[in-house]
Amino acid sequence: MRDIESLLYEDVQVNPSNAPHFILGEEQIDIWAEPYAQYHSRTPVDYVRNRILEMEKKGQDPFPDIVGKTKEKELVKTALFSGSPILFRGEKGYGKTTFSKSIAKLLPEKLIAVKGCKIYDDPIHPSCFSCKHKVLNQEAIEVTWVPTVWVRIPGDPMLTTRQLVGGISIQKIREGYDLDHPEVFIPGRAIKANRGVGYFDELGALPTSLQTLLHELFEEHQVTTTEGDIVPFKISTLELASTNPANYRGTSPIKEPLLDRMEAIDIGPPETLSEEVEIGLRNMYVVKALKKDPKFPVWHAKILARVIRFARDEAESSTAKKVQSHPSCRGTIKLFDHVKSRALRSGREVPLIADYGEQFEMVELALGGRLEIEYGVKQTKREIIQELLTEAVRVTCKEYYDRMPPATFEAFYKEIMSKAQRFDGEAYLPISKETADNLQGSSMIVGVLGEVFDGKIDDKETFLSALEMALHSVSLCLTKYAEKRGPGYILREMTASEA
Ligand SMILES: [Zn+2]
């Protein structure tokens, strides 16, 4: 038996000629043969590299969960290929965590580990003293399947060494304590990420002393304790981290030596409206939690995503200048959720404009806490939100109005008018189920709506929503002929020349 002290620092790795027997369940297995060969002896970086190569050969995107971000994906692949830890830098809500999770998905779902090991040690190349000892001294070792881990390590200024690295007592080992004794070794979060992904969320917020421990861990795979003991931890982890941009409020700087050991990749807001819409739709509660079809027409998605983009980007809207903190994609997702909820509670799957709330309360709910007004702006937050919504509705309606086919527009309008109710000499068309029943039979109306809204009108509720959006567009762009009143529109006679 080896001297325990030297075992602590020794790199232990076995091969088919000197390995103990491996027992899985009740049976002895040949760990170097199928179906086990793929699940040990490799580092997370090995797995990720192989998987990326495999997927690219098939023309597949290794990160299908990430919408857009082509350039960032390339950078991530490059950094992963060279085994570098990655630092995702960007404001909250733009998918830093999603990116780190989608990297973890490139790892196998399960691995073979030494049974009972607190850090899921590889039976061929263990890290902890206890497993090293077993591998070298036992004739047979029990192994087991374990899930691949993704460990979030929160950037908490109060985080202790014990929570980050763990409790390791070299002294107790020297005193002859059993290696599995809980007082000898309790792994912290960074060590628990062994063979998986360690995600340091808000890395800069970690106390400086812990950041120092980390760069030693990242680079040299060892930790020097405050007592001066060197603890060898050849853990095999894919280290990822996130931070806010340097000028962002509440951002603590990451120490230079640590920064120098990572590749920083900027993660910004979605570049295009359609990416923003896609992110919103994919992450809606009904989709993510309930696994349902969102049943959320793209016209509503565009209006609501624009509300957020107009608040965020001065290039898109001058209102953004009045906004201090910019709402992220979470704002978009919540806007979709709230409008959808209101529709569901009204007994419909597909939202109508009324579902924004009579006083656009749903929009206010999603934005209230996510938007701060620039100092010195005279308007209230509520007025700013209304301004954003009005502009988003106007721009989106204009887009659809411009798509109305000039050749058939007049006939389309007349057909709708012919189905309207008459009140005091005015034609009024309520946006209601009855209206949908009455108008859906008209192939003229269905045809034009299909053309304007890309043919995605597959059911009665979507038809009604599209009809409403068409009339709303007319009411905003040809104000003389349509006017919103209550839950419907007043329609006025149109002459050929004016249309
Ligand atoms: Zn172990």
In short:
Helices cover 40% and strands 15% of the residues. The chain is an alpha/beta fold and 499 residues long.
Q: Mind telling me the CATH class of the largest domain?
A: Alpha Beta
Can you tell me the CATH topology of the largest domain?
Answer: Rossmann fold
Low-confidence stretches: none
How would you describe the shape? elongated
Keywords, please?
5-stranded parallel β-sheet, 499 residues, 19 strands, Rossmann fold, Helicase, Ruva Protein, domain 3, 4-stranded mixed β-sheet, binds zinc ion, 15% strand, 20 helices
Task: Describe the protein.
This protein is an alpha/beta fold and 499 residues long. The protein folds into 3 domains: 4-263, Rossmann fold, CATH 3.40.50; 273-401, Magnesium chelatase subunit I, C-Terminal domain (Helicase, Ruva Protein, domain 3), CATH 1.10.8; 406-491, no CATH class. The chain is 40% helix and 15% strand. It has 20 helices and 19 strands. It has helices at residues 4-9, 44-57, 70-81, 96-104, 129-137, 161-164, 170-174, 189-192, 208-220, 256-259, 273-282, 285-288, 298-312, 329-345, 361-367, 381-401, 406-418, 433-439, 443-452, 460-477, and strands at residues 21-24, 27-29, 86-89, 110-114, 140-147, 150-154, 166-168, 185-187, 197-201, 222-224, 230-232, 238-243, 263-266, 323-325, 372-373, 421-423, 426-430, 482-485, 488-491. The strands form 6 sheets. A 5-stranded parallel sheet has the order 6-9-12-3-13. Helix 13 (298-312) runs antiparallel to helix 14 (329-345) and helix 13 (298-312) crosses helix 16 (381-401). The radius of gyration is 30 Å and the shape is elongated. The mean pLDDT is 90. The structure holds zinc ion (ZN).
